[in-house]
Amino acid sequence: MAVHSYCDPVVYKANQVEHLKLEELPVLSDQHYTKNLVKRSYPVIDPLSNKGRRHIALSLIFNVFLVEHVEQAFMLILRVLASFLAPIGINRLLNHLETGGEGAIVKPWVWVLWLLLGPMLGSVIFDWFNYRATTVLTQCQAIITQLFFDHALRMRVISDVAKAASTTVPSTSGNSSVAESSGGATNAAASVASSSTKNAQTKGTNSETGSQKSMKGTSGNLVGKLNNLVTTDLATLQGGQSFMLLVFSVPVQIAMSMVFLHTLLGWSVYPGIFVMAIMIPLPGYVATLLRGAQVEKMKRSDSRVQSVTETLNVLRMIKLFGWESKMNEQLTEKRQLEMKSVRKLQLLRILNSVVKLVLEKTIGEDELTRIYSSLIPLATIVVTYGIYTVIMKETLTASKVFASMAIFETVQSQFYSAFSILPSVIEAKVSLDRMNEVLNETELLDEYTQKEGQIVSESGAEEDVIGIRAASFTWTAETPGSNRRNFTLNIEDEVFFKRDCINLVIGQTGCGKTSLLMALLGEMHYTPMGSNSVVSLPRGGGVAYHAQESWVLNDTIRDNILFGSPYDAERYNAVVEQCGLRPDLSLFDAGDRTEVGEKGLTLSGGQKARVTLARAVYSQAEILLLDDVLAALDVHTARGIVEKCFRGELLRGRTVILVTHNVALAAPVADFVVALGADGRVVSQGSLSSALAKDKKLESEVNKERQAIELEEQVIEEVTTGEAVTKPKGQLIVEEEVALGHIGWPALTLYLSSMRGTVGSFAFWSVFFIFLLMSKILAMLNIWVLGIWTREYEGRDPSAVPVVFYISLYTAVTFASFAAYTAALACWVVGSVRASRRLHQLLIESVLGATMRWLDKTPISRVITRCTQDIASIDGLLVLAFFQAIDVFIQISMKFGAVILISPLFAIPGVVVIIIGATLGQVYMRAQLPVKRESSNARSPVLGHFNSAVSGLVSIRAYGAQSTFRKESHARIDRYTRAQITYWNLNRWVGIRSSVLAGTFSSGLAAYLVFGPTRVDPATIGFSLAMAAGFSNMILMAVRLFNRAEVEGNSMERVQQYLNIEKEPKATKAGVPPAFWPASGDLRVEGLSARYSADGPEVLHNLSFHVKSGERVGIVGRTGSGKSSLTLSLLRCIITEGKVFYDGLVTDSLNLDALRSHITIIPQVPELLGGTLRQNLDPFAQHDDAELNEALSSAGLFSLQSEDDENRITLDTAISGGGRNLSIGQRQILALARAIVRRSKLLILDEATSAIDYATDNVIQTSLRSKLDKDVTLLTVAHRLQTIMDSDRIMVLDAGRIAEFDKPSELLKNKDGLLRLLVDESGDKEKLYAMASSAK
């Protein structure tokens, strides 16, 4: 273990293959498995177990890893003792030469051997310390990642609008968004337990605390903050581990150094100590400034990461709207603010270096960074030597100078270590504080926050009762009078659902239907109204849940349906048949083995809804909660679900609670109906007739719905993306790229060339290298000055030696070295900030310019990882690693040159040592690089699973699937840990071997100088040994730093990979349309064919048609007919052939942003940005409020709310990221309003009103007919025939071809036409004929 020989097989194998895969790395020991780490740590770090709320850092240090930290402290003390072996050896060896061995007991060869074994022993000890430290670090990262995952599983899913907002939050009643987050970004994080949500008789004593928690835990930047916590913040723990050096190594080393110096220089060392003491407060002040700068930087990083994450999660919408350049400008502005903080932080670090002066590497030191002395030790040296020679009148011999210099350099190294480690420890402390705040201040579900005795046990109510009595529910635990209004669900009497049958929950859009389900599931904050208050949902027989916004895993269709349940072929096939999935599966080459992609992008909205329904039906759960499962389906498919599924054997005897707008369709299978009013109160319960009798508006809606159903009995199925047929073998997501061999030269040159800025490469690099070389030359000269000084005492009276001159010369040279180094470092910092800014900009531009196909194949979590973790590495670790690699190369060259200058014969051994060191580094890098790459790639699945789970928190909790998701998280974290452990152990492997090489070179040179044929004076020998020690130790340092630079360069490589992706054509001057374009909505298509990939099949075949300006065209067709493909091809989102003329211009000659910004499409699942409603409608502040309110009115929003409604949605209403605090229907209305604001001449509605009740849909359609400008062309893809029957013309697509395209009245004249067949088979063909006749 001491020499880490267990890594030999890994190193050997890595040098035999091109790339070492993660599966070929050593397996984890039991102590490293996440499940075991959780058992060990959770009793003291889990907020629910840690009742005293002890800080997570203290719990990890003093409880979880106490033994490991004691062992590290012991190793550090041993290392301090070992560090004095080399100075003692130098002192005794030079003393022997000065005295000619007179009275010597120990022979010189012993001290030569001492120089070999001393540093080697110190290296073994320090490597063991690092081995323990990195093991604890990796385990801490695994524990914290899992802790946040578990914490997320018990967090209340609430809107993350800014806590300081004074705006009103809209009714979150129909909140699929509150129930399920569609975004890929995280919401919060930490531990879990599953229990019944049967709560009763709570006192409400936690309301104030809960409010405070929610306000602290739901800030506007929470999504970005949590992404940062599990990426950037977690990475800071690496530097924070060094706090052990501050506590044990630094003070003990300094104390022992003072004792040793006293034996050499007498009492003159004490004035030096006094100078040191009075200067110590200086670094404390600098540390305070650093901490403030770090906090500011992290806040701005949070804001930038939040914006990037949200932008990437709605990237398809951004591309469809042509907003890439404007969103890029916004992200660039955020990045500029962040880089100002980074620059400030880096400059403060240079200020931290103002208390450092450039001296040499400490003899025997083997840390990763160069060691510089500080002003404090420099002042100590000057005072000590001055008093020793001027006041004490002592002789400064070579043995005393070079031995004491070695000790002073040890002191200097400790001060530098303290100064260098302190910022990293501060960063880690800031990050741990942020983690602690999220763990302790986010709002949890009531079952995790209620005190004992506040929740009634199962015996407190009848076992089979499902319902609520005398209780109110809100989305947060906020108290009245807070600055945010919340929707409240009030159950003043009681609502109990019937068992073993189908129950309906009905009501207008925004009345609280989803909230009722969430209240049963325990997702809302529960406030009892009396002593008999009860909330009961028995979990014993299992609960299944279908969210309004369907949540699917990034897995196959089959695995999404099974959801961890055992595969039963008979039951599975019955579920697929009853949920109407059989025709859909036949469209996929791989059937149910087809990957659905991230957020189910392979599937249409209707397909996702049926897959999620199939998951609930397939489960063995006795209780099914289905939230608006029919909304995304056309009537034909929905009726099939009702007849086959709801009336089928699989649901017989099970309790179903169905929230729906499709009352008439679902009523025949319902045994019990609950109706909610607009104020969140129960209007009626019992039969459907009694519910309608008490709500005339609802009765009117149902009647209209019945008429619509009759019109749509033979309606055409819902939208499909059309691209599923192009998926070979069902695989959509491509395997993440892993570079082979050394870091690519293009990635390296990209970074270095980005540093130059406007001054040019030659000027920038010339200035940098001139200052850096000057600092190294001067750093070597100050030791030479000491050598000359000691020669002055040979054969002369000590009083005759010009002490003041030599002290002044030594100080001046040291200060000059420092000034040159500071200038070089400042130059590097400025260049690195330039490079970071440019690389982030290039990455964002590249991703924003990616093709839709590339986005389909690439999980957003991978992109987010590069925009967060890899960019953070480029901002910090990469900057330091590259600088140190360049610096150590110059130092090692100059030190080797100095050794050769004095001992030319040693050039050959020196070259041999360099060759051996380079070979060792090459062998090491062949193993280290693939391990680092595998580690980086193993991180993305951890984040992807984290984000996916947070998106479906309510579903996971409803199914009681927390354990399954925990196990999957454990497995993914274990894979990452496996790579990390090997990565750190390989560092130890190369470190111990490099130390042996360094010690051999130093002791060999000493033996040659002492026993060689050439007589050399002690001063020269001392200088040579100092240079040799620095050179030999730098072989180790060079190997490590070059390797570190290459390993950290992996982040640069990963970013560079995403700069060379499939991109859409860039904008050109020739592609800018005239200012007056488009003057009309005229659309002409000639020979249009389209495909989703270059090697995929055509999905559109030679379409030709002409739509005149101002025409309203309906587009219908069966699943896979090409409706969505047509809309995407008009926007050039897929590969097309043929010509499309928009207002006379060929669209493929226009810039994409110009084309898409003048065409507006509203997709079936709309996407919103975090911020206010005003910012969503007009994100770039181009319109006034009057226009925005008019658009909201035209979109039908005001028909859903009254002026005196306290929860009404206004322009100042806060919208959470992805629109999570709005229902799907509300989101569709706002998306329609946003489209109206754009005033495009061509408007495309792609199933834009599928989640809206029929009454609101009628309002919207009427508004569109009357309020759109007369020259606006409207293309409507819809499955409701009444929506498009009065269009000017109707296009019927079949298998990617136009089957029919004419006026409705003309198409109805064709007895064999498809539209005629649909209308004749409908229940009310006379009304449809009348609608067609009334069309223009």
List the helices and strands and how they pair.
Layout lengths: L7 H7 L19 H12 L10 H9 L1 H17 L2 H15 L8 H45 L23 H4 L19 E2 L6 H11 L4 H14 L1 H4 L2 H23 L3 H11 L1 H33 L1 H7 L2 H30 L2 E2 L15 E2 H17 L6 H44 L4 H4 L16 E9 L13 E10 L4 E5 L6 H9 L3 E4 L5 E3 L6 E4 L10 H6 L6 H10 L3 H6 L17 H14 L4 E5 L7 H12 L8 E5 L3 H4 L5 E5 L5 E5 L1 H6 L2 H16 L33 H10 L6 H31 L11 H46 L3 H6 L2 H16 L1 H26 L4 H45 L1 H7 L2 H50 L6 H40 L25 E9 L6 E10 L4 E6 L5 H8 L4 E8 L2 E2 L5 H5 L2 E4 L8 E2 H5 L7 H10 L19 E2 L8 H15 L3 E5 L7 H14 L5 E5 L3 H4 L4 E6 L2 E6 L1 H6 L4 H7 L4 H10 L2
Parallel strand pairs: 6-11, 6-12, 9-10, 10-11, 16-23, 16-24, 19-22, 22-23
Antiparallel strand pairs: 1-8, 2-3, 4-5, 4-7, 4-8, 12-13, 14-15, 14-17, 17-18, 20-21, 24-25
Q: Would you count the extended β strands for me?
A: 25
Q: How would you name the oligomeric state of the polypeptide chains in this document?
A: single chain
On the 0-100 scale, what is the average pLDDT? 76
Query: Biggest sheet: strands, sense, closure?
Result: 6 strands, mixed
Strand order within the widest sheet? 9-10-11-6-12-13
Name the beta content range: 5-15%
**Alpha-carbon distance between the two ends:** 87 Å
Q: What is the count of DSSP helices, taking H or I runs of 4+ residues?
A: 47
Coarse morphology: elongated
